[in-house]
Amino acid sequence: AVELAIPSGALIEVAGGTYGPLLLNRDNVSLRAWPGTGRPIIDATGRAAGITARAANLLVDGFEVFGGGEHGITINGARNQGVTVRRVEVRECGFADGMFNNHSGLMVNNDATDVVIEDSVFRDNVTTIAGRICSGLHVNSGIRVLVRGNELRGNSQHGLFLAISSDVVVESNVFVDNGQSGARLAETDAVFRNNVVCDTEGIGVEMLGDRPIRVASNTILRSAQSAVVALEDSEKRVESNILAFSGEFGLVAGDDADLVADANLYFENAMGDASGFALDSEGNVFADPLLLSDRCDPSLAEASPALAADIGAR
Predict the structure, then answer these.
(1) In sequence order, what are the residues at sequence separation of 6 or more whose Cβ sits closer than 8 angstroms to the Cβ of residue 187?
(2) Pairing of strands 11-14, 40-43
């Protein structure tokens, strides 16, 4: 990787073109696409990652990254504090064999803190190696992480994989055509709100582990398995979501789950609206949400019962 010898506090504008991998190890640096010159493309073919961040108060804005064998972008270690990744596209990364099982388009790891990932696309990050996991985004041991306004599409295992992290907010993202889950929230205290999750090959949203998780005001459609699965014994709250057209159940609770499920809309879930708990008929809605599109779009007709009850993503 090219190590950029730039002073702290610098703003670097990069012209459109194709470049090799970058290592960012100076604090207080902004690296962004030069307006009007096209998108700078990082070709990480033959390397583990395209952009590696090892500094505080960084901005990476407007790049495209492809071909990283393990990750497209890595934000790894406690030195990474206050890193923002904005308006990037990361594709076709994470396919290689390696020391660790979890690969991704972008990885936040090992106590990276106050990280923002927004307005970006993470697509087609795929592995075919047995025992390997490839996700659009993987946040492992992150602290105060915001994931907002992104599209996560066509990733082989998870659109988003959260693990052993704290104070994570995931809001206003679109998850479409991902593999095992749209989002796996594991051993993480997290809020997952106002997202659209559709056409997942497995489960729409998985909630695992003994930390509190809130899944609220999302629209989760056409999961091949269940829309939401809540397992293990910490409090899991599932509120004000549209859970519809699932191949199995709308909402599943494991034997040990401390589940609060309220004010959700359930419709045409093939095996039933709920499994593992008694679904209260009061406070929930059992009706067609009247979506305006069969795509991954949460827009609703004016007569929608979800609009009247303030349920689902907007």
Answers:
(1) 163, 164, 165, 208, 209, 210, 211
(2) unpaired
